[in-house]
Amino acid sequence: MRIRDTGDLWWKSAVIYCLDVETYMDWDDDGIGDLPGLVQRIDHLAELGVTCLWLMPFYPTADRDDGYDITDYYGVDPRLGDAGDLVELIRTAHDRGIRVIADLVVNHTSDRHPWFRSARRSKDSPYRDWYVWREDAPPDTSKEVVFPDKEDGIWTYDDQAEAWYRHRFYRHQPDLNTANPQVRDAIAKVVGYWAQMGLDGFRVDAVPFFLADAHKGKGDDVDHPHEFLQQLRAFLSRRTGASILMGEVNLPYEQQRTFFGDHTGDGKHEGAELNLQFDFVLMQQMYLALARQDAGPIADTLRTRPEIPHDAQWATFVRNHDELTLDKLSDDERQEVFDAFGPDKDMQLYDRGLRRRLPPMLEGDPRRVRMVYSLLFSLPGTPVLFYGEEIGMGENLAAEGRLAVRTPMQWTSGKNGGFSQAAASRLSGPVTEGAFAPEHVNVSDQRRDPDSLLNFVQKLARRYRESPELGWTTRVEILDQPHAAVLAHRSTWQDASMVALHNLGSEAVRVPLHLDDAGAGTRLIDLLEDDDRTTDDQGRVEIELDGYGCRWLRVVHPGSRRML
């Protein structure tokens, strides 16, 4: 492998940024964000260091689940613009060196989708078997629902169809029968269409659900469900070789391996399914570690992370657009995180997660916020940012459920945070208020402040892109040191090596390190501050670390030709 090979597998060292067009920038001032507005803000993303833009659903929708209830897979929601606007966005992003991916929501449709409207009208409809039905009354499925505050089972009786249809999510989102070859062909057509329009891949929603279909109707194929994912990946690669599938797979590590295409457990071969998977396990352990101010949960998780195929990657994140799920923690561990970061019931959701953003959870402490984002970018994997994280936006708990973290982007200190000139009552969501309101947190002010969080995240993105070992290391090394609050880890790839130190505690410490391959003259170049160190002839060195401090130390041996 050579450094030029990192461009072929670009997703292993990308900086991904997720946004909802509806809440990002309203250019026609009707209260709803739109594609022309996003185009006007592409340079913000380019300056931030974003290399891949992930769009939440922009398709026509019944708008009962923030766009995830799709009524037409081939269209653009007219509130956001039209297909021409989308092409302009993709073209402008590509000009700035930013790839564009979009949500692929194929576990279900809206109940207003023409497919389902036809399916419910008659058993003879050509679309009847595109959904999952049963004639007899279902058993109790209350433990299988995804949204326990809204649904009490995953089957709903339809009077028109005279049958029960399955919906793992909301009842207005009937499940597609993805075991049906016709449905698989239709999904491939959707993928091919948007790839032809210029998209560089997809974030695949709810992967385990749509692969675990058990309808077993006439002509269905469910004996080898992963073959569908393999076929979809192969189809997309044939159409556009550099496109990706980034999957939402919230499962234990050993089960996640199979979604990379590693069905033997050796982690050695090329992947054949998802290119990236979100590391939900590590994210949840990170919040437990923050609550305890003890780095142990992160270190233990990194040690147990399985080796994955060469062309696969973990997508690391602090926050996403859903609730901050803590479902993989034990009940006691989850309660620890609730007590630390969301003690009020109104801050919690579905008894498994939090509907908060990071800065309010950390009481706005800039040291802790910066330390967490430094940790994100230094973890082996591909960092994914949710819009507004770069400036430290907060949530609005007055909004319902998950919408608390999907408030309008805050561009200025002016009306509606510069998102729109429309009346507040017409906005796509309520603007955040209080200590994290636009007058205190916005892009415009932070662009002019060299010490702002925005400028710090820009530096992190730049340093990450300059350090391929962070995305390409095959196994992170946890370094021995005596402080429970400190995570010391080392990532190495070819001749590139980085030591990252993060103090999850409030007390300053001195961290003794021993690098086996270092000796007299080995330099540790600090990439975040102007404070370099040199190891002694036994490879030892001590590093001062402030409370909630962070250091990125590039290991430079004598004779190295790496840029410093």
Automatic annotation (TrEMBL):
Record carries keyword DNA-binding: no
Annotated EC: 3.2.1.1
Record's catalysed reaction(s): Endohydrolysis of (1->4)-alpha-D-glucosidic linkages in polysaccharides containing three or more (1->4)-alpha-linked D-glucose units
Source species, domain of life: Bacteria
Key words, A-Z: Carbohydrate metabolism, Glycosidase, Hydrolase
Domain Glycosyl hydrolase family 13 catalytic, first and last residues per copy: 22-426
InterPro entries assigned: Alpha_amylase, GH, GH13_cat_dom, Glyco_hydro_b, O16G_dom_2, SupH-like_C
SUPFAM superfamilies (UniProt xref): (Trans)glycosidases, Glycosyl hydrolase domain
Family designation: Belongs to the glycosyl hydrolase 13 family.
Name of protein: Alpha-amylase
The organism's taxonomic lineage, starting at the top: Bacteria, Bacillati, Actinomycetota, Actinomycetes, Micrococcales
